[in-house]
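Example record

Each entry pairs one chain with its bound ligand, beta-D-galactopyranuronic acid.
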Amino acid sequence: MKFSSIIAAATVALSIPALAAAENWRGWNIHPDSYPNGVALEQFAKELGETTDIKLQIFHGGVLGSQPDAIEQVRSAALEVGNFNLGPMGPIIPTTNVVSLPFVFNGVDHMHRAMDGSVGEIFEAAMGAEGLVPLAWFDSGSRSFYNNKRAIMTPADVEGLKIRVMNNDLFVDMVAQLGGNATPMAFGEVYQSLKTGVIDGAENNYPSYESTGHFEVAGFYSITDHLIIPECLCVAADTWNKLDSDTQAAVRTAARNAAETQRELWAAREKQSREAVEAAGSKVNEVENKVAFQELMAPVYEGFIEANPDLASVIEAIQNTK
Ligand code: GTR
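Structure tokens for the complex follow.
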């Protein structure tokens, strides 16, 4: 080869842009792949594969560990993605505890208006400072109590019941105010604990009550709607900060699209799950006087504000969201 052709070939080679190395990400999901969140996370991964160089593999069913552990793993970027409920995040990032105050939202729509607006930005900033970037908010409906002893009609019916709660002292306090005994426990341990009588009940939305099979071992579901806790689609901040701005924009778009899908599927799934558990024999009851439950939560709020005076303004911001 002539010297000039060698130079020409080298010039061509140099002018070819370097191919960006594919990034391999792992995502944590506590639910099965068929659950609205699982479907939405798979859609997120697929869109990332099409619009970026990121290859995201979702691990469903909580196989990568419990939720509190997974939150820590994403914070330290040992895992890149997680779909987290803000309930178990409170002990780690105190600002997020505000959404775990019982009855803080007056309905699911109120929660979405707050999280999609300026209140959501407060959480985004607090989480960002602790290593988590929430890209979109998922729906998780409202949580109610279920147990295998009796229908709960009034707070007195909770007395003496051993209730599993998510890992957060606020929930222990919430159940104590109703006269019950709360046990924080990992989601994956609840079925067996209900079956063997370690606990009498737990609390969750219809889809989780159904998908976990808890309805088989705790047949009274009483609609208290005491917690409405949003869930995030989160990326590790360290991972996020290394992305160029075009990729960040594409990841955000994919996350918002996934959240749209999740919320649509959620609405349908809530209805289906309620029908399924009733068809299987669960006794679902309305609670006539939810205010009686709500009023007993005053000490929970007082204790919380005493311990976190700076968060009173966040509670107000939620209450002021019309
Ligand atoms: C579900 C939620 C999960 C997990 C679970 C629990 O509703 O989607 O992330 O928090 O409740 O009770 O542990």
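The first strand starts at residue 23 and ends at 28.
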